[in-house]
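As a point of orientation, let us examine one representative protein, giving the amino acid sequence and backbone structure tokens.
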Amino acid sequence: MSGATRRPDWELVPEEPAVLRLRGDWRLGDELPAPESLLAGRPQPKGALRIDGTGLGRWDSSLVILLLRLFAYCHEQKITVDSDGLPDGLQRLLRLARAVPVARDRRRPQRRGALLVRIGEVTIELHRTWRDGLAFLGESVLCCGNLLRGRPRFRRQDLFELLEDCGAQSLPIVTLISTLVGMILAFVGAVQLRVFGADIFVADLVGLGMAREMAAMMTAIIMAGRTGAAFAAQLGTMQVNDEIDALRTMGIPPMDFLVAPRLLALTLMLPLLSIYSMFMGILGGGLVSAGMLDIGLTPFFLRIQENVGLEHFLIGGIKAVIFGYIVAFSGCLRGMQCGRSAQAVGQATTSAVVTAIVLIVVADAVITILCQVLGV
């Protein structure tokens, strides 16, 4: 078998021991044959094979890979291979490639242990998570204590940038979601209340729902996905780049320098965003009432003014303060717990969002029950 001078070419001499002569250039850009085709025409299924590389021109890793596949094929066919006729450099690469064990697939699912073992592992993990969360909570409270005593240990410029990011830059998404939520509430109320001729109570439903529940909760969930995840990614990336270790080495507490301004910024801005969300939701509900129920905006807002007291807006504002702290706490906690790889940063970001949403819902349920018990 022959070919052009610089093209991959080979010749198999089938006499025992068979000789495989390689000639020409063997590089990635060339069309290389399959290992089986190199031995096509060899009559004996077993025996010995000697590879002669004296005619080789230029070659690269593609030839190494092809020979490794050929060796594996010969091993399956019980053919003994003699590669001493190859160039020294190629022989060294082959020895090196065969000396390194094949890496196991890390994505392969691990064997699951017994039920009791898994329960024990989950329990230990929950205990560790709970303990770390409490420790971080204690450190964050100490940071807040330093702030209240007027001893912040962060740059004002960082705080102003965080306030802008948490506040002004969040207005478009808060406006869109809040208006749509208000419109949805009005739609649902209109469909049901119209049956009983109680159209005007749509204003009560939208006003009360946005003031007490939906504005604070929806704003907090938006900020958990937007800002809380960003906090986790920022701090996680700093963990990967050893920037947090560098701060500790310089005697700067990361909790005071990195975590405290984030807690302060989001705890301050979330109530303001929630108040804005309340009015945008009410406006959305008013537009639906005007379009579907022929209730003008003026009667709609007068009805809310008469029947939705200020205490309901106050309860929504208190929830927003708590939710803001929860979102910032979750983002900073997962960011500080982040590992030192790019994959760990993604996991920390996801965990921050999930943690924040779960804690928001739990906190909202607790506050609602307390308000019910207290008769507020």
